[in-house]
Structures are given as C-alpha cells and as structure tokens.
Design goal:
With 133 residues, the protein is mainly alpha-helical. It has one domain (2-132): Helix Hairpins (Orthogonal Bundle). It has helices at residues 2-56, 81-132, and strands spanning 67-72, 75-80. A two-stranded antiparallel ribbon has the order 1-2. Strand 1 (67-72) and strand 2 form a beta hairpin. Helix 1 runs antiparallel to helix 2 (81-132). The radius of gyration is 27 Å and the shape is rod-shaped.
Length: 133
C-alpha cells in the first residue's frame, strides 16, 4: 500500500505543478494580448487621421501628393501619405495575426488547465473512495 500511496502523491504533485505552470503561462499571455489590442487601436486611429489628412489636404491638389511626418525614434521623416497608410495597415494586420495566435494559445492553455483540474479532482475522489473502503 505504501508504494501505491507514494506513486499517488507523486502524480498529485506533478498535476499540481502542471496546473501552476499553465496558470502562469495564461497570466503571461494577458499583458501581451492587451499590448496588441493597444497596437490595433493605435493603428486604427492612425489610419483614420491619415484618411482625414488625405481627404481634406490644405491648398493645392490631390491626395497623392500630400505628405505627413512619420516618427522615427526622436526624429521625423516627411513621407507620402500612401506609404504611411500602408505602414499603418501593415501594423494593424500584424497585430491582428499575433493576437489571433495568442488567443488560440490561451484557449489551448485554458483547456489544458481545465483537464488538469478534472484529473486532480478524480484523483482526490479515488483517494477518498480507497480510504473509505
């Protein structure tokens, strides 16, 4: 009975460790997801402002010759609006793809956590049944 009890304790400890690790990984994903959501909002706001700048443009002509400043570190570069719009759309699509991948990973980890919890409950229930017999 002692060997089976030691084996049960080892399995119990292993399941607990797996649960803690999974919870930590889920917790680590949440700030990453929040950062990507902020990046999406920033890219959307940039696209809206660039659309307004291209449509309203002061003075002289069509939207193709309008330019705006793009921040580069501590400096700014004067760039054509289509290039800035393409860069903002690129940032938005990259953030979308990364966010989708993180959501998929989070769902997988949550399922794994739930399975571990269920296995732990079953193990405790079996232990109770063995103790009462």
């Amino acid at each position: 009975m002692s060997a089976a009890d030691a084996e049960l304790r080892q399995a119990f400890a292993q399941l607990q460790a797996q649960m803690v690790e999974t919870q930590q990984r889920v917790s680590a994903l949440e700030p990453q997801m929040a950062g990507l959501q902020r990046a999406q909002l920033h890219a959307d706001a940039t696209l809206q402002q660039l659309a307004l700048a291209g449509a309203g443009g002061g003075g002289g002509g069509g939207g193709a010759e309008n330019r705006a400043y793009q921040p580069v570190g501590r400096a700014f570069l004067l760039q054509p609006l289509p290039e800035l719009k393409a860069a903002a759309a690129d940032r938005r699509s990259n953030a979308d793809a990364k966010l989708e991948a993180l959501k998929t990973m989070k769902d997988y980890l949550e399922r794994t956590l739930k399975n571990s919890e269920n296995n732990l409950r079953e193990m405790v229930q079996q232990r109770k049944e063995q103790a009462s017999s």
